[in-house]
């Protein structure tokens, strides 16, 4: 089969667009835990409640479903958009990925918490997500790197979690109806109707969530990937100065850039392009970040001002901002991609990579002007997973080459960014 590099995706977004949430009447779902412990009641029905905790939390979705659950971590009431994540491991990296701001992450892996948390797997300075939804909270924690149990960690960081909720049923609902806004509460006094109203009066679209997660002043990043974990130690020769825009940057992007030989200055999301150019960088990185990419026109303007003046690399939100700066449009997908098992066709290398992904929006390839190439395609749904505009030294990925958590198949893209900076530097 001939691989066409230029915009090979059928110019349609209709398969991905999120439909309007269906308004249904309130229905309550509660999960009975099937236990292998014998009790006279349980033996008769095959179902018994765990004796040490009964449901003390509710998740009310905007479609009218009410999910009774048990709480861990912080208590209170919180609104957010529910998304499901299919990663089998790496819940600490997911919890600290700032791109989840405003969202409840529902893990499809039913067993969470068994390895606790540790000092090394943090992807940012705090947890920005709205909450965590899981099927089963591990009753024991055991790992040589563990420094704390998951529940204590969430409590310290004021993040709500619920367990003993039917995560498969909610995932099927999200797949069918699209991502849904919900309210999580431990407050008995709030009625289901009140919570439903609350969930229907909030929307993640159109909000600038980047400003709440970005750093507030520039700083130098020096940490490399620990050699023990670095599976790719080649090509660390030259030093390039990279200015990294922090739209909610994950630490592993910075570690990978440092390991590839970059001196890195991280700057806040509203850092002027003119100031960046004064720093004379060899390249600029636009990071991942939370929320609606069309709600941050100031960031698109900054990207536009830098285009053509310095090689640029965009990751996830950075890719979506680049798409807009090049003249394209973004749209909201039905339920997005969140997990460590997304197959992507890399059209430049003609190979399939299994990738880590976390996004609810995508660039519409049909909206892009001549000369912009789609370089990567998500093989699950054909959506645009990477772009290049060689004339302006632009490259970007919709997904996460830095993994954390996830497969490392796409790590070599950092090497491609080094090559791009080298080429431009040699010409200068
Ligand atoms: N990981 C990211 O950068 C996410 C980008 C954007 N917030 C989205 O959901 O599509």
Automatic annotation (TrEMBL):
CDD domains in UniProt: GATase1_CPSase
SUPFAM superfamilies: Carbamoyl phosphate synthetase, small subunit N-terminal domain (SSF52021), Class I glutamine amidotransferase-like (SSF52317)
Taxonomic superkingdom: Eukaryota
Reactions listed under catalytic activity: L-glutamine + H2O = L-glutamate + NH4(+)
Any single GO CC term annotated in Swiss-Prot or TrEMBL for this entry: carbamoyl-phosphate synthase complex
GO biological process terms held by the UniProt record: 'de novo' pyrimidine nucleobase biosynthetic process; glutamine metabolic process; L-arginine biosynthetic process; pyrimidine nucleotide biosynthetic process
Keywords, alphabetical: Amino-acid biosynthesis, Arginine biosynthesis, ATP-binding, Glutamine amidotransferase, Ligase, Nucleotide-binding, Pyrimidine biosynthesis
Known role: Small subunit of the arginine-specific carbamoyl phosphate synthase (CPSase). CPSase catalyzes the formation of carbamoyl phosphate from the ammonia moiety of glutamine, carbonate, and phosphate donated by ATP, the first step of the arginine biosynthetic pathway. The small subunit (glutamine amidotransferase) binds and cleaves glutamine to supply the large subunit with the substrate ammonia.
Name of the protein: Carbamoyl phosphate synthase small chain, chloroplastic
Organism from which the protein derives: Populus alba x Populus x berolinensis
